[in-house]
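User: I've been trying to design a sequence by hand for this structure and keep getting stuck. Would you show me what you'd pick, starting by listing the structure so we're on the same page?

Assistant: Good idea, let's start from the same input. This is the structure you sent:
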């Protein structure tokens, strides 16, 4: 599905507003609810509308790639209501269909 093309900070902002967007390389996108780096869910929206960013960086111990950490996680930080270590969600009631594990 084609989403409006934007730069990475604009994709992160679109996620925070609940809008659809993707970057020019098609490797960073949001359907308005979830935020994706490549095919990996790196952010999601709670039923209360809160944006939760999963910290896929080296400092969290869940490094995926330089692009994910630097170009996708970094611009989304300012738009997230909370930043969570990905290992934490293994013990939550987040729908399994969006879990990145």
């Amino acid at each position: 599905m084609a989403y409006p093309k934007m730069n990475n900070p604009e994709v992160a902002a679109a996620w925070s507003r609940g809008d659809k967007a993707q970057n020019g390389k098609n490797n960073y996108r949001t359907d308005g609810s979830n935020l994706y780096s490549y095919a990996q869910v790196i952010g999601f929206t709670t039923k209360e509308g809160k944006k939760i960013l999963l910290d896929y960086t080296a400092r969290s111990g869940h490094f995926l790639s330089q692009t994910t950490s630097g170009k996708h996680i970094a611009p989304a930080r300012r738009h997230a209501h909370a930043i969570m270590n990905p290992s934490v969600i293994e013990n939550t009631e987040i729908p399994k269909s969006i879990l990145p594990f």
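That's my pick for every position. To get oriented when you compare it with your attempt: Residues 58 and 98 are 22 Å apart (CA to CA). Strands lie at 21-22, 28-30, 35-37, 40-45, 51-54, 82-84.
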